[in-house]
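README: folding subset

This subset contains proteins for which both the sequence and a predicted structure token string are available. Records are stored as plain text. Below is the entry for Purine nucleoside phosphorylase (321 residues), shown exactly as it appears on disk.
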Amino acid sequence: MCNTNCCSNPKGKAGTKTAIHSEDRSDIIPTPDSQLYPYEVIEEIADFITKGSGMRPRIGIICGSGLGSLADMIQDPKIFEYEKIPNFPVSTVEGHAGRLVVGTLEGATVMAMQGRFHFYEGYPLAKCSMPVRVMKLCGVEYLFATNAAGGINPRFAVGDIMLMHDHVNMLGFAGNSPLQGPNDPRFGPRFPALVNSYNKDLINKAIEIGKAMGIESNIHVGVYSCLGGPNYETIAELKALRMMGVDAVGMSTVHEVITARHCDMKVFAFSLITNKCATEYSDKKDEEANHEEVMAVAKNRQKACCELVSRLIREIHMASP
Ligand SMILES: O=P(O)(O)O[C@@H]1C[C@H](O)[C@@H](CO)O1
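--- output ---
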């Protein structure tokens, strides 16, 4: 059984193929995160999914906390529990079911992660975003990443949707990247550029869809920042983020977007504002973020999020079936 904290299966089941062990005993050598999942292992996982579903999905969706219903819209779903996918991590967070759903949505072939992986769960960033590479090798061209986030911009209200047009990678400031370690050019370049990571056409289409849905006043465009979590932020941290131009804060998405852009996927991402972040000191308990509130707000707003996503997918599919 693995004792190097490298296996995707925490129970270390006998016979489970792991991504890191090899005949040369690389299991005892400190291994850069990016090598946890060599290209061939990602390929095997992608084959497992495309053969198992009989589909090559074109659009990948990552459901944020409490937004698992995005995947419930998928028709003729083929469901893969994470624990049954070879070399896949397992979800440990409430509100993240831990399954991959493959099928069609508005005529387009899609695959959705009902449950993502977070740094605070103890997974290295390369492992958190590994499913994005699986999506790529399954045929995915567009990544739709969603998250629950705290609103720092005072104009944002709980329940609003912020279309991400940029991010501040706080984990990157601290020296962490999903691309750390040797680069495999089959995925992308050593030094990828990240300007224009968030597809402008998709943002503009989403704004139009918001208008058609009559929720334009609840739609914003802004900057997201990912912190490591699992603790929520201090007032001083929130003040600093605001000064840096951050509009919403969360604990995910950025490493997925970096991985997607590295392998040249088109990215659309949004934050559902599940709580307002206090940026002034106060003794009021109700100003403290908590996961129950995050989940409850996400549940309340899932209909609007689902409609936004399905309409946008419809447009993509209609423009190039
Ligand atoms: O997976 P996301 O980013 O939507 O989840 C957010 C961040 C934490 O996982 C959790 C905190 O309530 O919600």
